[in-house]
């Protein structure tokens, strides 16, 4: 009987827990055996950064509970009728649906993200503690380094944890998720200022903001909606301003179910211009048939991996430069409660949304931007979109809502830095994360896939397209679990 496969998974959010859950299921189904070390300092398996317990209850999942997927309930294809909606049923059984009246909109329930975290924690703990041939140990520690270990058993890894423990692995899976936002270069001079919130996802990040402060929110996406919800929910009375290059705010999640409308993959567009033209034509066509634009978006969501990988790198770059803000505002829709709050705050003047490019900033400045005494305001200079004149304004606090700092994660995450230094991983050409092949194996410094080193989740988006939402991550996590299981059966895809 072969000895169990030793797998170290770094990161226990939706991605890492998903791979572990996939392995447990494979063990139960086929007798495949493995020792899995799931490394993450956070207490809850599944929650990761996004669904951490104790988060603001106003921060809601942007997908209704009935469609919020994770590898926690019964596996797709094996679920009995109604079981696919495991999270929704859990909300019903645990009394969440009844207690959370504010979570209902248009007949659907949008629970707090921390509630989804509680669900994942409960289901995954039960799954991981059940006796079976795959054993999962959650190590509450941080992986700080890893190196290749060549032995008679083949090429594996030794993973070093901050607490000093060394873990030997036949396979290493990186699921390090969304790194906190990076302060844009133009705001670098404000770093460390007590009223500048560089990472709004950190617990208690907004606490230093006073109730009457004039607040500048840099970025107008979903995190802006969270920040506005928290501040207004706390009784904030000062003016809020949100600024981004295009001033686009996320669309509200529509009530109806979106059905995929078009197959763009049969003849994938070779460039961004062609893609845009075909999307516009599909939206017009859908409209003529009485279908909403969200049906076309659903097609793009489901097919985005195939479309993205068919685009040459230069076209992917063009997408990032020109289309990304439009894609994000339409694709990452806000829960209706959050969208309505943002819209009503704009209507009643509590929130202004501006389109413009930041060009300068100064801390402790007077209204002309001149640096003065400590305790002065945060002076920000921006160029309104479509204009030449510069506008300078003073704020009391600034919140950076520019999204995950994927590009900076190599420097900030010591594990990724150590693997890069050894040439075992490299950034993708767009600087969005770790470069992988289609089997989600990391590419080394020379562009060769590294056998038994996998990456799952948001860090793969530069290579594989949108691997951001929970429902997109799940198939990737299960595919890696499948590859590891197959490997044990001697079918692991060989490096060229
Ligand atoms: C603010 C926010 C809101 C979102 N809302 C939604 C939503 O409503 N619906 C939706 O579908 N998607 C949402 N998303 C998308 C989100 O990316 C996915 O849903 C999913 O949670 C990502 O899971 P993950 O495991 O890849 O990453 P994460 O949740 O970021 O987890 C990564 C984990 O890796 C750990 N880690 C990193 N480095 C190390 C290391 N060296 N050693 C040990 N552990 C390490 C971290 O501690 C963390 O727990 C949201 C994302 C953000 C940032």
Can you tell me the CATH topology of the largest domain? FAD/NAD(P)-binding domain
Q: Which CATH top level class of the largest domain fits? A: Alpha Beta
Hey, roughly how much beta strand do the residues contain?
A: 15-25%
Largest pleated sheet:
7 strands, mixed
Small-molecule binders: flavin-adenine dinucleotide
Q: Average pLDDT across residues? A: 91
* Fourth CATH level, the homologous superfamily of the largest domain: FAD/NAD(P)-binding domain
Radius of gyration: 23 Å
Number of domains: 3
Number of strands: 18
Which stretches are low in confidence, meaning pLDDT under 50 for 5 or more residues running?
none
The number of distinct helices, counting runs of at least 4 residues, comes to: 13
End-to-end Cα distance, whole Å, is 29 Å
Walk across the major sheet and give the strand order.
10-16-11-12-13-14-15
Provide the structure class: alpha/beta
Helical coverage, percent range: 25-40%
CATH architecture grouping of the largest domain: 3-Layer(bba) Sandwich
Specify the overall morphology. globular
């Amino acid at each position: 009987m072969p000895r169990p496969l030793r797998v170290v998974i770094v990161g226990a959010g939706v991605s890492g827990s998903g791979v572990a859950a996939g392995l447990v299921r494979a063990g139960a189904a086929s007798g495949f055996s493995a020792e899995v070390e799931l490394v993450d300092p956070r207490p809850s398996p599944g929650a990761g950064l996004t669904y951490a317990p104790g988060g603001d209850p106003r921060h809601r999942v942007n997908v209704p509970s009935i469609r919020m997927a994770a590898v926690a309930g019964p596996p797709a294809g094996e679920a009995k009728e109604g079981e696919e909606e495991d999270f929704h049923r859990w909300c019903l059984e645990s009394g969440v649906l009844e207690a959370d009246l504010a979570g209902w909109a248009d007949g659907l329930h949008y629970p707090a993200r921390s509630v989804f975290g509680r669900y994942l924690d409960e289901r995954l703990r039960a799954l991981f503690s059940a006796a079976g041939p795959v054993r999962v140990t959650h190590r509450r520690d941080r992986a700080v380094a890893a190196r290749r270990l060549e032995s008679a058993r083949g090429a594996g890894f030794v993973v070093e944890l901050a607490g000093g423990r060394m873990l030997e692995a036949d396979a290493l899976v990186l699921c390090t998720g969304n790194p906190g936002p990076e302060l844009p270069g133009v705001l670098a001079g404000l770093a460390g200022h007590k009223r500048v919130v560089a990472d709004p996802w950190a617990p208690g990040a907004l606490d230093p903001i006073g109730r009457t402060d004039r607040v500048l929110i840099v970025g107008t996406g979903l995190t802006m909606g969270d920040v506005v919800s928290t501040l207004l929910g706390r009784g904030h009375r000062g003016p809020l301003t949100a600024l981004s290059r295009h001033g686009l705010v996320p669309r509200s999640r529509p009530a109806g179910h979106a059905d995929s409308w078009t197959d763009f993959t049969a003849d994938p567009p070779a460039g961004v211009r062609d893609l845009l033209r075909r999307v516009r034509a599909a939206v017009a066509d859908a409209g003529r048939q009485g279908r909403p634009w969200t049906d076309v978006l659903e097609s793009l969501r489901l097919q985005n991996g195939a479309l993205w990988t068919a685009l040459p790198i230069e076209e992917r770059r063009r997408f990032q430069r020109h289309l990304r803000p439009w894609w994000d505002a339409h694709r990452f829709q806000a829960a209706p409660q959050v969208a309505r709050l943002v819209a009503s705050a704009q209507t009643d003047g509590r929130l202004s949304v501006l389109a413009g490019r930041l060009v300068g900033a100064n801390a402790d400045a007077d209204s002309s931007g001149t640096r003065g005494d400590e305790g002065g305001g945060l002076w920000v200079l921006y160029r309104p979109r479509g204009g030449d004149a510069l506008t300078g304004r003073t704020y009391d606090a600034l919140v950076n809502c520019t999204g995950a700092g994927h590009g900076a994660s190599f420097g900030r995450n010591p594990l990724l830095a150590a693997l890069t230094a050894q040439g075992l991983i490299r950034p993708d050409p767009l600087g969005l994360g770790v470069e992988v092949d289609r089997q989600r194996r990391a590419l080394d410094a020379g562009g060769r896939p590294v056998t038994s080193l996998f990456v799952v989740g948001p860090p793969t988006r530069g290579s594989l397209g949108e691997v951001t939402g929970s429902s997109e991550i799940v198939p990737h996590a299960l595919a890696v679990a499948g590859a590891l299981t197959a490997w044990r059966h001697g079918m692991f895809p060989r490096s060229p």
